[in-house]
Amino acid sequence: MRRRRGRPLNGWLIVDKPSGMTSTQVVGRAKRLFDAQKVGHGGTLDPLATGLLPLAFGTATKTVPYVMDGTKVYQFTLRLGEARDSDDADGAVTATSDVRPSDEQLRAALPALTGDIMQVPPVYSALKVAGERAYDMARDGRPPELPPRPARVDRFELIARPDADTAVFEVESGKGVYMRALARDVALACGTVGHIAVLRRLRVGPFTEADAIVLDKLTPNDDNAHASAELLLPVETALADIPALALTEEEAVLLRHGRALSLLDLMGRIPQTDASGTVRVMDAERVLGLGRLEDGQLKPVRIL
Questions:
Q1: How many CA within 13 A on the CB side of residue 33?
Q2: What is the pLDDT of residue 173?
Q3: What is the pTM of this model?
Q4: Name one GO molecular function term (predicted).
Q5: Does domain 242-303 have CATH number 2.60.120.10?
Q6: Distance CA 177, CA 170 (A)
Q7: Are 297 and 262 in contact (CB under 8 A)?
């Protein structure tokens, strides 16, 4: 007998990930709870980390890249005096130091780690080196030498200092920035060593903690064998941060069929965009999809 593939659900579920679970485990659990055909996530969180893990169901997976490109906000606690091989509390101690920088010294180190920076990723990362995952190589006792990578940190603030051994920071960044590397580098810049003891993600693109659901609350009840599809946010919620461009009904039909539109015909309606020129194309109150402003045209990129 052919195996049933699950329900064809579409939308976003914003999970408040608990510590100790991988992002893949959260996806698997949500897929089972909802009996869903297709689920993916919008940006990996380390097992130690808690906080926002957006899950994309069905056609929402088409919008995952735009969520991952969005601004992210994190809070982390830096534990001073111990370096760990994973740069977080799950790793083995590799070095110690008695140096405990002052608040002023910690703040003085932040400007060099803000803006467009070059960052050496943690060896325990999913980056590939000659076809192998860096974390697999590290676990085999072959930690790779990872080259610095460009990263964008928009805001980096010291927000609390509970005691001499710990400091709490808040970071606003783009994609591909490793909080573990920032924690490591702040400590090194202050002449000591350190690692992340606590890490929480507070925002991903348009999604905030107000949207988040605790995983344990998704347990099906006696009235329903599966978690309710009403918990899912609409697919287009993921695109709320992207500037909107309203089309006429005729223009929407053309774009839906893959036709580019002249920007001359759209004058007066074109919003300010970032360097990518991406816009959220609206057909009346409905999100038609995504387009890009380039070469004097509005070109369809992703129609939902």
A1: 22
A2: 95
A3: 0.84
A4: RNA binding
A5: no
A6: 13
A7: yes
